[in-house]
Write a structure and sequence with these properties.
It comes from Actinacidiphila acidipaludis. This protein is mainly alpha-helical and 214 residues long. The chain has helices at residues 25-28, 37-42, 59-68, 80-102, 108-119, 143-159, 161-164, 193-211; strands at 45-46, 53-54, 72-73, 127-130, 133-136, 140-141, 167-169, 178-180. It has a two-stranded antiparallel sheet with strand order 1-2. The chain binds zinc ion (ZN). Zinc ion binds at residues 10, 170, 172, 175, 177, 190-191, 195-196.
Length: 214
């Protein structure tokens, strides 16, 4: 919702030179539809090519993000310092993933930071057997282990030619979120229909109404 109380879809305001898009609660909300841990971290900065919207704005938000990506931090690990470290890793991950998408070369500092984070060993994945069947254990992580998981997820994505070929950038002019298109024909152009897809539909409708006022 905006200050005026009306819902503002992502990207409302039109492309190139239009009024500044409103920042709604939906715009500020965390994203868990990037297609993986690293891309979900990258998506904690919205509208990075315009007026960026910081969605990872403190330890509370970090806790919510961890919940959304099904990881658990050790007691006391969700600190401002970890938020700052994750933001640095996020920008390096964005640089690497967007370079992968465009076929360009990321900054050496981005590659070095991802490698440095991945160097630390995260806990081994583990199954647990219970009355309902097997479940994947969620050991509590240190901040360093969380950064390692994110970095390793990004490296695994870059190493997999099939998944890497599905990297896309949302066509929403203000959004431009990176996501993995896992649909069979890979013709998805929006990060989500509910967000940018609907905004584009509404903009087309407004355009038609303006062209044909009768
Ligand atoms: Zn989008």
């Amino acid at each position: 919702m905006t200050e005026t109380g009306t819902p503002a879809p992502e990207g409302a305001g039109g492309a190139g030179g239009g009024p500044r898009p409103r920042v709604s609660a939906l715009t500020r909300s965390l994203r868990f539809d990037g297609g993986g841990l690293a891309l979900d971290l990258v998506a904690t900065l919205g509208r990075r090519h315009g007026d960026p919207v910081e969605r990872l704005d403190g330890p509370g938000r970090l806790g919510a993000w961890c919940e959304g990506v099904s990881v658990r931090l050790e007691e006391g690990e969700a600190t401002e310092a970890l938020v700052a470290e994750l933001r640095l890793l996020r920008e390096a991950a964005y640089d690497v993933a967007s370079a992968g998408l465009r076929g360009t070369v990321p900054a050496l500092t981005s590659v070095a930071l991802v490698n440095e984070c991945a160097h630390h060993e995260p806990p081994a994945p583990r199954l647990e057997s219970g009355p309902e069947g097997v479940v994947v254990a969620r050991p509590a992580l240190t901040g360093r282990q969380l950064r390692s998981l994110v970095a390793r997820d990004l490296i695994a994505l870059m190493a997999d030619p099939v998944r890497r070929a599905g990297l896309r950038e949302c066509a929403g002019p203000h959004c431009r979120m990176l996501y993995l298109d896992g649909t069979p024909g890979r013709r998805r152009v929006w990060c989500s229909m509910r967000r940018c897809g609907n905004s584009a539909k509404a903009a087309r409708h407004r355009g038609r109404a303006a062209a044909d006022p009768a």
